[in-house]
Amino acid sequence: MMVSGTRYILLMIMIFEILGEGQGNCTGTVCSSNSLQMGYRSWKYIWQGKKNPALLGTEAPSSSNQEEWVSREGPLAIIAEKYLRFCTLTIFYQQETSGIALTLRRNLPYHGIKMYQLTSQDLLKKVTWSRSQCDGYLFLLTGDGHPLVRHASIDHFKAVPYKPGKQPPPLWNYKAYYVILLLEPSSLEPVNLIRLYNFKKTENLVILQERADRLRLWTHSLLSQIPSLEYLDTWYTGKFLTRTNLFPRKFENFKGFPLLVATFEHPPSVVYPRDAEENVIGKIGVDMELIRGLAQAKNFTVKFIEVSFTEKWGQKFENGSWDGLMREVYDEYVDIGVCNVFIDYYRYGEIDYSYPYNFMPGCFVTPSPKPLSNWQSPSLPFSRETWISIGISFLLGGPILYFIVVPLLNVNPEPLDFKSLSYNYLFILASLTIRSVNIVPKYWPGRFYAGFAWLSCLIISTAYSANLIAFLSVTQMSKPIDTLADFVKSGLRLGGHSFWKTQFELSPDAINTKLASMMESDVDFVSVFDQVEAGEFAFVENRQFLELNRDSRYTYGGQSTIRIVKECFVSYNIALILPRYSPLTDNLANNLMRIFESGMMRKWQGEVIQYFRKRYASKRLGKKFADPSEKRPLNLEHVQSMFYILGFGYLCSSILLIFEIFCRREQDTRKK
């Protein structure tokens, strides 16, 4: 018997549907996309409210079941098809809504669908909130939806104390699409959902509320002091009445909505101007100007939350909790954290970083080379090795002259003075100082030796005299610290934030490991520079911060009393920090990129430096700093070393005189 074309097509659809029934229950597991037969299923029956024999099995549903499908599953299927077609979809259902979940799973051919029964245990699994390029979460609720309410209420999880090895506060994917179906009888109202903290931070949210024979669609306003609902559309008689965009962009204009921004003073990023009584009268700085620029571009207001100055960026404790700026952001007390925050792997899994708006290396600041005392000036023209060589030559010169002259006294009698070892030393010393002596060798062996001794001493004396003038007239400085190896050998104490200690410990380099053991984290970021200037301390921080303090507070007449070591670390990107999965991360990216590319960061930094130079002008003017290159006449300070040498000679002569007198008396006593 021949089968008509229409009936043949329907028969094929039914066969494919029967083959698809073997999918089974996917509760708590990942359900793969249905096979090719699902592509033949047309959604026009759903959208138009017509009967489709293939939707619920091999038999056509009754009229009541068809109406239920049209009123409940229909709008969900359209939303998934239109907005979430290329997203990873996760469906949470309760026992009463399991049939809807299975029907959706069976009739959505484009998704790898994960299905979970709505329990607190599944909501607390990390895999539940894993991120992909696009994520969608569908909640099918009836009753009070307690597991979801409890999970989304961040206040409850803040009350749970941290315990080592326990799950941290639950994750939430703020960038995902959320679709929530509230079925009668449900005590959960849409306004109750949007008051939950996590939903207040979620941009893409649609709530379908069942009312008699229709579904009302709501979203929330994220830019209001009090959470409020915004009407979107209504599903009635198998179609949307207005067909509006269900996921509008909500962060193009903040409409004056206040954002909480945590920060603390850390020039030049954040500076607190003060009045005569040291009261804070405002906030300026590179990062503060950045926040003001973002506020103007996005039309939001800012409420600053002060972080403890002693805690600063914060550190992580053994129980997984943080303090300082990281605590404010990690626990989601604020919307943004800002204060010269480096992007690093150690904090990457705890919070979100914005698009980087600056970059800066970490460097050391050490005392500038100190002027050497002028009493050392006579020794500076020659190196230590040269002086040692001259000393050895002098010690050997006297005995050599003695052994050359004395054996020849019977053959070629030389003056008897050369028989004295002390005179031979005096002869060599006179040669070194280019002074002639009255008694000289008369015969060739002695003259030959004396001639070469005079020639050598002439070269040494001329070189020394030529350099001595320069070393007396110009103040000599100690050797600067240019490398990390030089710093380790210097013996200076090292201070800095605990962040740097962590960076040093993670490095396999032996010098960095040594620096980690030297680190002192309990330092005052203001007074520590006075200790550096005094030569007691060294400090590690970002180059921008060090340059500001060096140029504005410790530069006198073009000379600085503190110095940034040339060898620095690799540059770190600087960014805002935001709570994990914050919708602000992507919405602020373009504005941050434009500010960075405009060069405004350098301009703002220059303004802060000028402010600091005016602020510390009295200190700089009150301290006189000598320029070592300045031309000055020689004074007593320059030539003081000569008097030290003369005094040393007087002392030695006096000691020898006393010793000689003592020996003469001993000889006279023995003769008697």
UniProtKB/TrEMBL annotation:
Ionotropic glutamate receptor L-glutamate and glycine-binding domain sequence ranges = 269-331
Q: One GO cellular component from the entry?
A: plasma membrane
> Do you know which Gene3D superfamilies this protein is assigned to?
1.10.287.70, Periplasmic binding protein-like II (3.40.190.10)
A single MF term (Gene Ontology): ligand-gated monoatomic ion channel activity
- Signal peptide limits: 1-24
**Where mainly found?**
membrane
Q: Where in the cell is it found?
A: Cell membrane
The residue ranges crossing the membrane are: 387-409, 421-440, 452-474, 642-663
What InterPro entries does the annotation carry?
A: Glu/Gly-bd (IPR019594), Insect_Ionotropic_Sensory_Rcpt (IPR052192), Iontro_rcpt_C (IPR001320)
* UniProt entry tagged with the keyword Transport: yes
UniProt membrane topology term: Multi-pass membrane protein
| Keyword annotations of the record | Cell membrane, Glycoprotein, Ion channel, Ion transport, Ligand-gated ion channel, Membrane, Receptor, Signal, Transmembrane, Transmembrane helix, Transport
Please give the biological process terms from Gene Ontology that the record holds.
Answer: detection of stimulus involved in sensory perception
Tell me one Pfam family matched here: Lig_chan-Glu_bd
PANTHER family per UniProt: IONOTROPIC RECEPTOR 20A-RELATED (PTHR42643), IONOTROPIC RECEPTOR 40A-RELATED (PTHR42643:SF30)
Name of the featured protein: Ionotropic glutamate receptor L-glutamate and glycine-binding domain-containing protein
Give the species this sequence originates from.
Halocaridina rubra (Hawaiian red shrimp)
